[in-house]
Amino acid sequence: MGSDSQYQIPTIEFTMNSLVVDRGTAEWYHLCKKVREACENYGCFEIVYDKIPPQTKAETLSASRKLYSLPLETKKNNLTPNRYQGYVGPGVTAPLYEGFGFQEASNYESLRSFTEEIWSHDQFCTVLSMMKQLDELKDMIHLMILDSYGLEKSSNLIMVSKTVLRLHKYTTRPSGEYAMAASAHTDKTFSTILFDDQVSGLEVQTKDEQWVKLPISPCSFIFVVGDFLMAWSSGRMHSVKHRVMMCGEKERHSLISSALPIEGSIIKAQKELVDEDYPQILKDFDYTEFFNFICSSEGRAIDSQMQVYAFAGIGT
Ligand SMILES: O=C(O)CCC(=O)C(=O)O
Ligand SMILES: [Fe+2]
Q: Ranges for the Fe2OG dioxygenase domain (predicted)?
C-alpha cells in the first residue's frame, strides 16, 4: 500500500500566459527540460496550472455527480460495446467502479447529444470549457516533449491524437477496508491528464516497485505517460503503472482526459530517439490491432505493463 511518504513526483508550474508568445524562450526550454525529466524518471508529474481554477474543477465534478445520481436503468441505457463510450457499471472484476466515457471528446457534438437531457446548459458549458482547456494543456505538454528532444521540425506524430473524456466514480466497501477499485495498469494512451475531488485513491508504482499514494491538490492536475509515448520515445519515457485503492466511507470522483491515437495509426519509435542507449525495443505496430489484442483473452491474461512488449516486442 502507499507506504513511502517520502516519495514525491515532480511538481511543474505552468505560468506562461500564452503558448504563442512563450514557445522558444529560455523559460519555455527550462520547462521542456523539467517535463522531459519527469516523464523519463517518474512517468508522471503534478501540474500546477492557474488557468483552470479549482472552482471549475469542482463544478465539473458536480456535473459528474449528477450523471451518477441517475437511476441505474437510465445509466444502463447508455451502455455501448465501445470501451471508451457510454456507461460502464460495476462489474465482477471492478465492483467499486463506475465510468462514463465520451469518445472523440474533441468532437464536442457527441458530448452534447449524450448529456442533453441530464445537464443544464451551464453544466454542459462548464464541462465543455474544461475539456477544451485540458486539450490545450495536453497540446502544450506534447509540444514541450517534442521540443525537449529537439524534434520541433521533424516530427508531429504525437499531435495526431483524439481526446477521450472519462468521468469516474469509485465507492468503498461497506466495511471501509482498503480495497482495489481500479487494478494496476499502464495507460493505453499517449498521455493522460486527470484530477479528482480530493478523496484520495490514486497510487503509482515507483521504479523500485513500491506503491505510493498520489494526493491531488485542488490547484493541480496529474500528467501520466502512456504506453504509446513510451513506444514513441523508444523507451526513454516511462509509462508508469498506477491503480486506484479505496478505503473509508467517502466515494471518489475523478476526471480523466486521455490522448489516444486515431484509428489506423501506426505507433513507432522516432528514429532520432533510437540510439545505443535506447535501442529499438518494439516493432512498429498498428494501434487498432494492438487494441484488439489487449481486449482478447490472450491479451487480457498478460500484465498490463507487459502487453505492449508481448504484442510488439522485438525478440519476443
Ligand atoms: O480515476 C483515477 O484516478 C485513475 C483512472 C485511471 O488510471 C484510468 O482511467 O486510466
Ligand atoms: Fe490509468
A: 161-264
Instruction: Please give the ipTM for the structure prediction.
Output: 0.99
CA–CA distance from 169 to each of 86, 166, 192, 294 (Å)? 14, 10, 17, 24
Q: Whose CA is nearest to atom 3 of ligand 1?
A: 202
196 lines ligand 1 (CB under 6 A): yes
| Torsion angles phi and psi, residue 231, rounded to 5 | -65, -45
Q: Is the CB of 252 under 6 A from ligand 1?
A: no
Q: What tens digit of pLDDT does each residue of 4-35 get?
A: 557 899 999 987 554 555 788 888 899 999 99
Q: What is the pLDDT of residues 83-109, one digit of tens each?
A: 676 788 788 888 999 998 887 654 566
Task: Evaluate whether 231 touches 308 at the Cβ level (below 8 Å).
Answer: yes
Question: Ligand 1 atom closest to Cα of 168?
Answer: 1
pTM of the model: 0.94
Nearest to 57 by CA among 172, 195, 242: 195
Coil, strand, or helix at residue 214?
A: coil
The three-point CA angle 303-276-185 to 5° equals 15
pLDDT of residue 309: 97
| CA 193–ligand 1 middle distance (angstroms) | 9
CA of 127 to the centre of ligand 1 (A): 18
Which sequence spans correspond to the domains of the chain?
11-272
Nearest in space to 225 (alpha carbons), one of 186, 195, 263, 260: 186
Which helix or strand (DSSP H or E) is residue 243 part of? strand 242-246
Q: State pLDDT tens for residues 198-224.
A: 999 999 999 999 999 999 999 999 999
Class in CATH terms, 11-272? mainly beta
